[in-house]
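Extended Data, panel c. Modelled sequence:
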Amino acid sequence: IMKKILLFITYFFLCFSLFGQKTEQNVPEGKKDFLSKPIWNKLTLKAYGVVNYYNFDWQSDDEIRDAVDLERINMYMIYDFSDKITLKTEFEFEHGGTGSTMEFDKLEEFGEFEAEIEAGGEVLIEQLNLLFKIKPWFNVRAGRLKLYMGVSSKLDESTTYFTGYRPSMENSILPLGWYEVGIEILGDIGKNKRWSYKAYLVNGLSSVGFTSANWIKRGHQKRFELVNAENLAIAGRLDYNLKNNSWIGVSGYRGNTNDNRPKPDLKGVKGNVSIVDFHANLNFRPFVLHAMFLYGHLQNADIISEANRNLSNNLNVKRTPVASDMMGYSIEAGYDLLSFNKKKDEKELFIFGRYDFYDTMYKVNEGVFDNNRWERSTITFGLNYLPNPN
C-alpha cells in the first residue's frame, strides 16, 4: 500500500507540473499573473501526527496491558487551479497503516510464497473535493468532504485540544472525523463577516452499526467498498465569529438510515437520526475555553434494535440495543502559565482540565434495556507544552 501511495503522490505532482506548463495564449490579462506562478506557489502541503502511550488501570479488566499506538498521521495536499477553484485532498494513516507483503522462501521444500500482514490499522483518503469560490457569502464545495459538527471537527489537530487523546464525549458518539460524499454551500455573511455558515447534502448513515455504547458513531459507512446512498442527509452549521479565531454557534444533522442497510430488511420503516449541538471556542490567551452540548434522537430505535440482533456475524457489528435519545456535554479550560513571564518568547505551557458527561442510552423505547453503564463521566487534566507556534 505504501508503494501505491508513493506512486499516487508522484503521479499527483507530475500531473500538476504539466498543468503548470499551460500556455498563456488567449488568456485574459487579469489571469496571466496567476498562470505564470510556479507550481510550488499553487500547492500547499501540510501534515500532523499523534503517538500515544497508554497506562491502563481498569477494574473491569485487570489483565489489560499497557500499550503504545501510532494513532494517526494526516497529510494534506491542496492545489489552486485558479484563484476561484481549489482541490483539497487528505490522507490519514491510522494505527501505523495496514499492508501485506509476499516473500519467496526457497528453503521450504521446493520453495514457496509466503504472505503476511505487516501492521493493523487503516489507510484512508478522507477528503477529495473541489471548492468553487464564487462570492464571500456563497461558495460551493463538492466531493468527499468534511462534515463540521461540534467543537472537535474544527479543533481536530493535535495542538488545538488539551489532551493526549481526542475529547471523550464527542469521540464516543460522533464519527471523528466525519467525512461524507456530497455538496456543501458555505460563506461568510453580515457586517465584518462575523457570521459563517455551512449547509450540506450528503450520503446518510447506516443503522446496522448503531450500538449501545456509541449510539450512531459506528453507522458511518466505512466497511464497504461502495457506500449506500439510498438515504441522503442534510446538515448545517452557523457560527458567530469573535476575535482571535473564537466562535460560538449551533450545528444540526438529519437523515434517514434504514435504506442504507446492506439488505433491505427495514424497507418502509423510518430511521431518521436528528442531532443538534451548541458549541463555543473562546481563545482569549492566556485563557482558553471550549464547551459543547449535544443531543440526538433516533426514530424507531426499538425496531432497529430488534433487526440488528439478527444481523450476520460476517458484518462484524456489535448487535447491541440502541437508544432513542442521547445526551452529552463537556467543558474544557486552560491557562498559559508562562504568561506571567513578561520576557517569555512564543513558548506556551497550559495547565488544563476538562469534564465530560454523556449518556448514549439517555432515553429508550419500551422493550429496550437501559443499561446504566453507558451513563459516563470523565475528568481529564494535565499540562500541554507548546515550544513554538508551529
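The CA atoms of residues 348 and 386 lie 5 Å apart. This feature is highlighted in the accompanying rendering.
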